């Protein structure tokens, strides 16, 4: 510490000369450290907000990327389907063109063969007619009169085809109308010919529907989802044609701003106090998160999701000048601050209050265990960094961080009270976040079936309010956190304490105007009534 000149008057001026003394700069150091840690704490809060904002941005980006990926997949699928359909159209048109040419050629061949057959028939008829006349003329020349009768038959009568398709056999028959006499014999009266040569019809065979695709717009309406099914066999002949191989449906009808869906109210909890007016609580949990994470959702502490009601309003049993004690097995950690700005007088009252709390919770036969942690803080920035920001450091909890265990969880309340009597007042601003973390570590050793309670006796100041909020949030998950801000904490500090305490804050914050008031039996009884479900 640098020495500053000061005029020292000892009765009279000593030879009129100036002398130097070594000043106490601890208060100045404390205020500067408080400013520096305040800036660091605000920076931590801004970094945390930045991380949260980055998380929101990442979530939104992932949502958009998922939608883009789904749309690109749909586009590729549709492009593949379009290419396949185009290929089928081209092949079909080529086949239709070839078949048209073949049909035209077949029609020409059929016409030519029909004309040829007709000419042959006409020629055969003329030959038969000429042969018959020649035969009659020969009989006349020979002078013979004979009645010659050729066999005459009916037209062909077709029977039913053996198969209606894929090639069958049909039997044709005819009968003799006039039997032959010296003329031409009868031709065959039966024959077989092919029939039903067309291909049997086959219906289109479709496979099962596939799953629905992702919705193109999961919220806000206007989204489309699709599903397809394969063609296992094309229709043949006059078979039933294929039905649709794809279908789409609307989706994403939920508004993008739709809020979360909440569960029904839980049952009311047990009362927080056995007397003196406590609270019961019931909650509603989130069943379905907001659409796309952007819809409104009530905060966990809002009245839509959290409700309290008063209970056990009857007065606690009179103490007759003595503080109430706590019955039942509890694990209690008392965090004792530095006694406020009033110096040693307030510190003495703070120690008396701490001893009274130990007596109230650690009374013989109560089954409770009590621990006391003296809460100070680092004296300089280097020590603060070792305690909070240097991951590789191994700080000494007492020397570097200003936190000293007066006694760990114990049933020996008398020894703990004796240790409290000899405590020296911590002068550095409290490192409250580390104190809460130390209390949480201490309560990890609590006995099975017991409840944990942390009572923070402080003036509400803290080197690191942001870190303290985080530590308090973690501690509240494992134990009840009760705050006793003393000596008129500033409005900002009082508001922070309300946020640090367990819920409801009205039942877990007891603000007092002095440590002397805290040491009174009636005030200790109020603390016990708040922290203990069964005071007596």
Automatic annotation (TrEMBL):
Domain VWFA: from-to ranges: 331-527
Residues annotated as transmembrane = none
Cite the Pfam families for this sequence: TSP1_spondin, TSP_1
The record's Gene Ontology cellular component field reads: extracellular matrix
Q: Which InterPro entries match?
A: Spondin/Thrombospondin_T1 (IPR051418), TSP1_rpt (IPR000884), TSP1_rpt_sf (IPR036383), TSP1_spondin_dom (IPR044004), VWF_A (IPR002035), vWFA_dom_sf (IPR036465)
PROSITE patterns cross-referenced by the UniProt entry:
TSP1, VWFA
One Gene Ontology biological process: cell adhesion
Q: Which domain of life is it from?
A: Eukaryota
Q: Which UniProt keywords apply?
A: Coiled coil, Disulfide bond, Glycoprotein, Signal
Presence of keyword Disulfide bond = yes
According to the UniProt entry, the coiled-coil residues are: 61-116
Q: What is this protein called?
A: VWFA domain-containing protein
Which species is this record about?
Alexandrium monilatum
């Amino acid at each position: 510490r640098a020495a500053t000149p000061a005029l020292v008057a000892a009765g009279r001026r000593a030879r009129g000369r100036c002398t130097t003394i070594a000043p106490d700069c601890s208060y100045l150091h404390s205020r500067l450290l408080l400013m520096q840690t305040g800036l660091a704490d605000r920076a931590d809060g801004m970094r945390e907000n930045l991380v949260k904002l980055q998380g929101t941005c990442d979530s939104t980006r992932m949502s958009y990327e998922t939608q883009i990926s789904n749309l690109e997949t749909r586009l590729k699928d549709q492009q593949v389907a379009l290419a396949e359909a185009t290929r089928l159209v081209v092949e079909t048109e080529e086949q239709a063109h070839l078949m048209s040419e073949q049909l035209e050629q077949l029609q020409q061949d059929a016409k030519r063969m029909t004309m040829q057959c007709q000419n042959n028939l006409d020629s055969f008829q003329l030959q038969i007619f000429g042969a018959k006349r020649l035969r009659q003329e020969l009989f006349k020349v020979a002078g013979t009169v004979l009645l010659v009768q050729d066999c005459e038959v009916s037209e062909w009568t077709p029977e039913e085809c053996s198969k209606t398709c894929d090639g069958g056999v049909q039997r044709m028959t005819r009968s003799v109308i006039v039997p032959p006499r010296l003329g031409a014999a009868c031709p065959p009266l039966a024959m077989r010919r092919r029939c039903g040569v067309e291909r049997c019809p086959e219906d289109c065979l479709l496979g099962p529907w596939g799953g629905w695709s992702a919705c193109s717009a999961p919220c806000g309406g206007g989204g489309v989802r699709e599903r397809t099914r394969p063609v296992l066999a094309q229709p043949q002949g006059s078979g039933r044609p294929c039905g649709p191989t794809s279908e789409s449906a609307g989706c994403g009808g939920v508004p993008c701003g739709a809020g979360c869906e909440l569960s029904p109210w839980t049952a009311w909890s047990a009362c927080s106090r056995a007397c003196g007016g406590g609270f019961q609580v019931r909650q509603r949990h989130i069943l379905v998160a907001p659409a796309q994470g952007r819809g409104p959702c009530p905060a966990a502490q809002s009245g839509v999701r959290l409700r309290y009601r008063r209970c056990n309003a009857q007065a606690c049993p009179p103490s007759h000048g003595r503080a109430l004690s706590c019955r039942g097995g509890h694990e209690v950690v008392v965090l004792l601050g530095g006694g406020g700005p009033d110096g040693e007088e307030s510190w003495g009252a703070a120690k008396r209050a701490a001893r009274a709390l130990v007596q109230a919770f650690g009374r013989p036969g109560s089954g409770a265990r009590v621990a006391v942690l003296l809460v100070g803080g680092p004296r300089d920035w280097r020590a603060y960094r070792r305690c909070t920001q240097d991951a590789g450091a191994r700080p000494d909890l007492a020397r570097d961080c200003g936190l000293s265990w007066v006694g760990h969880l114990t049933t020996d309340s008398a020894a703990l009270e004796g240790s409290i009597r000899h405590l020296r007042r911590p002068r550095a601003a409290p490192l409250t976040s580390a104190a809460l973390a130390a209390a949480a570590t201490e309560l990890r050793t609590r006995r099975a079936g017991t409840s944990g309670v942390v009572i923070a006796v402080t003036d509400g100041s803290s080197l690191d309010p942001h870190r303290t909020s985080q530590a308090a949030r973690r501690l509240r998950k494992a134990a009840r956190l009760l705050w006793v801000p003393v000596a008129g904490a500033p409005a900002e500090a009082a508001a922070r304490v309300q946020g640090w305490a367990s819920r409801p804050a009205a039942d877990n914050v007891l603000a007092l105007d002095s440590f002397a008031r805290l040491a009174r039996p009636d005030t200790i009884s109020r603390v016990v009534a708040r922290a203990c479900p069964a005071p007596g």
